[in-house]
Amino acid sequence: MFFKDFSFPGGIGSHCTPETPGSIHEGGELGYSISHAFGAAFDNPDLLVAVVVGDGEAETGPLATSWHSDKFLNPIRDGAVLPILNLNGYKINNPTLLARVPNEELEHLFKGYGWAPHFVEGDDVDLMHQEMAGTLEDCVLEIRRIQEEARASGKASRARWPMIVLRTPKGWTGPKEVDGHKVEGYWRSHQVPLAGVRENPAHLKLLEDWMRSYRPQELFDQRGRLIPELKALAPTGARRMSANPHANGGLLRKSLRFPDFRDYAVQVEKPGQNAAENTRPLGRFLRDIMRQNPSNFRVFGPDENSSNKLDAIYEVSKKLWLADYRPEDADGGELSTDGRVLEMLSEHTLEGWYEGYLLSGRHGFFSTYEAFVHVIDSMFNMHAKWLAMSEELPWRAPVSSLNLLITSTVWRQDHNGFTHQDPGFLDLVVNKSPAVCRIYLPPDANTLLSVANHCLASTGYINVIVSDKQKHLQYMTMDEAITHCTKGISIWQKVSNDQGSEPDVVMACAGDIPTKEALAAVVLLREHFPNLKIRFVNVVDLYRLVPSTEHPHGLSDRDFDSLFTKDKPIIFNFHGYPWLIHRLTYRRTNHKNLHVRGYKEKGNINTPLDLAIQNEIDRFSLAIDVIDRVPTLEVAGAHAKEILRNMQIKSQNYAYEHGVDMPELDQWTWPA
Ligand SMILES: Cc1ncc(C[n+]2csc(CCOP(=O)(O)OP(=O)(O)O)c2C)c(N)n1
Ligand SMILES: [Mg+2]
What we know:
By secondary structure, the protein is α/β, with parallel strands linked by helices. The protein folds into 3 domains: about 35-175 and about 215-225, Rossmann fold, CATH 3.40.50.970; about 260-475, Thiamin diphosphate (ThDP)-binding fold, Pyr/PP domains (Rossmann fold); about 490-665, 3-Layer(aba) Sandwich (Rossmann fold). The strands form 6 sheets. The chain has a 6-stranded parallel β-sheet, sandwiched between helices. Strands 17-19-18-20-21 form a 5-stranded mixed β-sheet, with helices on both faces. Strand 1 (about 50-55), helix 2 (about 60-65) and strand 2 (about 80-85) form a beta-alpha-beta unit. Helix 1 (about 35-40) crosses helix 9, helix 14 (about 510-530) crosses helix 18 (about 620-630) and helix 18 runs antiparallel to helix 20. The longest helix has 29 residues, at about 125-155. The termini are far apart.
């Protein structure tokens, strides 16, 4: 039964998949065993997380950078992590680098990362058990000593935590040789050392001998049950590895305590008149969440929380820093040995910590630059898969959602340029199970607050929120924002003039800058064509575009058709790559009339309007798009088109001459 369950079609996975009780780390994609372990240890003062690291895994980027996690472990309020680097010498097909350098070099390496390495080496099973047991004991005592000292003195400082380098043969105790090739102690032992057991009797015999070498008759009774004296060795209840509640974090999860997000609202008297930094009120909201949840909420960022205008958070909790301090750090450094904001320039390590923190039952928030969230593409993939599988397991209690704020976005890379323009993460997100992914593009500060409040309270999802950090026009009062976000997509009545009739065109948009340009386009069109009936639709919840049969947030076809019409032209101004909107809507009735603008990889050092013009998401291009697609304007609109084109040329020339956009265009507001 066991053999037909393990790694067998329809059975349980060969990795520590979500179906494996006691696991928070499948390890499918290698590289973040250590960061996951640290995530579990943070704010768990009594927890000791032992983590086995493959020597091949240790060559990956995420793992290599995660050794630095030791500088973020506060011995007073955090638990401990004991890494066990399994130097078995090989990967799938190659020796490992760390196994082929002298021990002295290894020792220097790990000391250099701040660890105190202990070596356990050999291949004599009985001796090795003793030696490993002794070393583990030394390490645990050392960990306790560090913790007791810090906790007694109340002074948190950097510690040289122990780690173990365990050098053993790969495929240890497996077949020594197969078909004349060395297997035990060589890469040939990786995963399936005997490939031909079905057709090759010699292989089958080797398999039998190998299995019998573990003397199952001494371990199991006639019916295949573990004998009572061995069973009695296992701990009981939550002490069992499989029943450890930290590895089924939803069981330990306590709901966040929330201040009322409405208290952080930006005052909006009239829509589209005043600008504000969209992320700044969110920073104040996060600050007070941190205040009310001092031991189970963390904020993560790759050196960017200030840059992303979330720095209000430091009023309540600083950035954890246990390494050396300099006098100048007192001047705006916002560092502290008991800070609860984690900043390190490794998106991998942050994401790993955050996942480990969530999977062991806590809450958090991660903000990162849009272009570089791609660094963790595959980690996002793995977590999404973990969540999707976990949803099918009734015994896994739901964990808090992973909330990812994507900011410093493509459209405002004024001095950074082309490398910082990449809104493609959303394309990746929509590949994943609709059961676990959400995408929000709030157009202003109040909608961002409403979305963030919703996301932080949720469980079981990855919530991706796209919002730029620069000053942007504010459109909605808090009440309007809540209504808009609740619907996820709506017609902006004050901007539309098709009430009671059919529109000539639908102007749709998603994202802060695209929304502003679409609004400005509506104003231009009104000037030139006062009778044109325009319906203005804004999308906050991107999955509203998808059919309801495909995503729980999807609109029914009937609702979609009534918003977007069955036959009128739709101009959709999108934050990301335009084809994503086609991908989400290709089955909708009016898809053939849908014309999407978005980022097309045109950019450099640009002013915001120049970048918009280059990618044709600007007000002039959108107005031209409308002229080209509304049948009555195709010919009549020629003169207006000329004027709009001239405006594009004029504003680009101005930008190249002065380095900024023409003030009247840059400071454009909705006509009062
Ligand atoms: C990031 C990543 N790259 C490649 C693989 C494919 N892969 C699976 S196992 C393995 C070798 C791992 O070697 P090691 O970490 O030393 O593990 P062990 O020797 O204990 O099997 C590789 C390359 C993977 N799972 N993840
Ligand atoms: Mg190995």
